[in-house]
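Morning F.,

Quick status update on the modeling queue. The single chain you submitted on Monday has been processed. Sequence for confirmation:
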Amino acid sequence: MVTRKKKPPALGRARPSSPQRGAPVPSSAQEFTVVLEDLRSHFKAFGEALDLVRDEMRRGFEQVDRRLAPLERDVAGLKTDMAQVKTDVAGLKTDMAQVKTDVAGLKTDVALIKTAVLEEHRELATKVSREEVERIVQRAVSPSRS
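Structure tokens below.
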């Protein structure tokens, strides 16, 4: 005689417990109703918990939105200010280039003036002043005092 092995219960299914002696065996319709009521109560509890999570998330997002709105306005203002600063800096760069050109021209002018002044000074150093000429002439014309 060949003995058959019992199949293990399928995964995910609960093994039906054996009824106690003397207890009436529930019908499959009663078992289905009990399981269905159990599922309904779990779904109801899950739905209530999900509603609480939704409410909490909504309140949290509203709070974040309230805190974020002023920051967004500030950032928009900073962007506007930064655009103006960029424009101003570009203008300053242009002005600075002109100043550099002007300073280079002034340096050249100062060097030319310096050269001219030095040359004039040399010429004046070698020239005799009018008063000095008059004194020399006066000495030459006046009788000598001896």
